[in-house]
Design goal:
6 helices; mainly alpha; 201 residues
């Protein structure tokens, strides 16, 4: 890898990170230990658990957070290699590492509640990863920061709504922890000075 040009290194690191995340997710999903609550956690309605009702919205939170982890971990790892600004590289490293922690918590809660998780990012997230792979220098930094800032804003809104409505104590604790991660990441991304006012939502 040392002999590769910087562009090739960054792309190779992204591919390896995506493959590693997918492999880890495959192991978890193909070997679920948890039993679906009341045998129906994969369905659309609310089901009973000993920690309180588990709603469709609760399950959506786990799925969406898992997908966020699956694209932001490799994005952060790539940015550590490719970003031009030292602050962007620093922020990328923190975000990537914290998403690894959040992903472990997401998988643990999903296993506890019997919720199956996706093994790859959604279509939009994959397109963002491809977009970033084609950027370099200051253009890369701006794209990385704006894509992650927009995504975190959306996830924060989802978590805030779910926190106000969930009746499941396990989910309540998970959502509160997740909101702290997301809020930290929003602040970190804004600290780069690359988030314009129009993106603050």
């Amino acid at each position: 890898m040392r002999g590769l040009p910087r562009r090739g290194r960054g792309r190779l690191l992204l591919i390896l990170a995506v493959l590693a995340a997918g492999a880890a997710a495959f192991v978890v999903v193909m070997n679920p230990v948890g039993v679906p609550a009341s045998g129906a956690a994969g369905l659309g309605g609310t089901v009973r658990t000993k920690w309180g009702p588990l709603s469709a919205q609760d399950r959506t939170v786990l799925v969406k957070v898992r997908q966020a982890n699956l694209w932001e971990m490799p994005a952060g790892q790539q940015a550590q290699q490719r970003a031009a600004a030292p602050r962007v590289r620093e922020v990328a490293g923190i975000i990537s590492a914290q998403h690894m922690q959040l992903d472990a918590a997401t998988r643990a809660v999903a296993e506890q509640l019997g919720v199956l998780l996706p093994v790859e990012p959604n279509g939009s997230q994959k397109s963002w990863l491809r977009e970033m792979s084609g950027k370099f220098g200051a253009d890369y930094d701006k794209t990385f920061v704006l894509r992650l800032r927009a995504a975190h804003g959306q996830v924060f809104q989802l978590l805030a709504k779910a926190r106000a409505q969930t009746e499941n104590t396990v989910m309540r604790s998970f959502i509160e922890s997740g909101m702290k991660f997301v809020n930290t990441h929003i602040s970190l991304l804004e600290s780069t000075g690359l988030v314009p006012r129009r993106a603050l939502h």
